[in-house]
């Protein structure tokens, strides 16, 4: 499903969706919902920054997933809202410690009741069961790296693909290296000079150099320069959020990529090692 981040919601719909989607699912006596209820800051963050409503979370009842789904349909029948809630539940559960079978069961029940794409739950299951290779390929298949490769090929054709493969195989592309190193001679205040400074300050290699970034990563590095972001794990997460916004990337995939790289240490990107 496509998530339309630019979609503007009337305030009455925001309030309705908050009352319908933020109640804690009744866990039938299990401790499955502790992963979210034990995260008041993140739970409040959904209310304050995603829905932007004034609502006392403690006043909301505990409901079965089926009841939450029915309440959300009464607000708006569009399944996008139910999928957003499921994605948020999944990410918060992953943020708060090792995945558990109890939380997985609740997420599966919610996905079934919501009648939406269970892909977020499948990602949670892969992490819990240690299927990291499956998670790796799933993120690669859906994430921004695939989109970056596609954009590079679309813009540059077969030659761009050849150049990318050449760099990834560890070979020098002299023409590319010299073109990018030439940016060091651009005037102070120009974007080219700022990009060259970013590469040198962080002791990175220029594109075309063995071990340097391939062309698809160039646009990502430009985002660092444009936004003034550094290269710590937190700043990489921030710049990916910036990139997700203007490129229209799937937010769930971007956040999952950041978690895989910098929290789980999976190393999804072929260009950087996981931490």
Description of the molecule:
It is a single chain. The chain has 275 residues and is mostly helical. The protein has 2 domains: 11-130; 144-262, no CATH class. It has helices at residues 11-21, 34-37, 40-51, 65-75, 79-95, 101-114, 119-128, 132-142, 144-168, 174-181, 191-201, 215-227, 233-247, 251-262. The radius of gyration is 22 Å and the shape is elongated. Mean pLDDT is 79; it is low at 27-32.
Brief descriptors of the model:
about 280 residues, mainly alpha, 2 domains, 14 helices, elongated
Radius of gyration: 22 Å
Termini, distance in Å? 30 Å
Q: Which range best describes the helical content: under 10%, 10-25%, 25-40%, 40-55%, 55-70% or over 70%?
A: 55-70%
Largest sheet at a glance? Answer: none
Number of distinct beta strands = 0
Give the strand content. under 5%
Mean pLDDT: 79
Order of helices and strands: HHHHHHHHHHHHHH
Poorly predicted runs: 27-32
Integer count of domains: 2
Count of alpha/pi helices: 14
Molecular shape: elongated
């Amino acid at each position: 499903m496509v998530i339309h981040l630019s979609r503007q919601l009337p305030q009455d719909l925001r309030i309705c969706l908050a009352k319908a989607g933020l109640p804690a699912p009744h866990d039938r006596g299990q401790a499955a919902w502790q992963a979210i209820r034990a995260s008041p800051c993140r739970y409040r963050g959904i209310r304050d920054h995603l829905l932007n409503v004034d609502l006392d979370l403690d006043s909301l009842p505990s409901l079965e997933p089926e009841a939450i789904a029915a309440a959300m349909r009464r607000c708006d029948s569009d399944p996008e809202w139910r999928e957003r809630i499921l994605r948020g539940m999944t990410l918060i559960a992953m943020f708060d410690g090792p995945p558990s079978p109890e939380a997985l069961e609740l997420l599966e029940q919610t996905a079934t009741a919501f009648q939406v794409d269970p892909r977020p739950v499948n990602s949670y299951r892969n992490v819990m069961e240690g299927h990291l290779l499956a998670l790796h390929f799933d993120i690669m298949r859906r994430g921004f790296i695939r989109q970056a490769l596609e954009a590079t090929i679309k813009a540059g054709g077969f030659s761009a693909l050849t150049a990318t493969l050449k760099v990834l195989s560890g070979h020098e592309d002299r023409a590319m290296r010299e073109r990018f190193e030439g940016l060091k001679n651009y005037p102070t205040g120009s974007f080219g000079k700022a990009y060259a400074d970013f590469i040198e300050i962080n002791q990175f290699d220029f594109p075309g150099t063995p071990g340097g970034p391939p062309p698809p990563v160039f646009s990502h590095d430009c985002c660092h320069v444009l936004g003034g972001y550094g290269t710590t794990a937190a700043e990489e997460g921030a710049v990916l959020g910036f990139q997700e916004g203007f490129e229209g990337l799937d937010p769930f995939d971007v956040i999952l990529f950041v978690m895989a790289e910098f929290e789980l240490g999976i190393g999804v990107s072929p260009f950087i090692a996981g931490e």
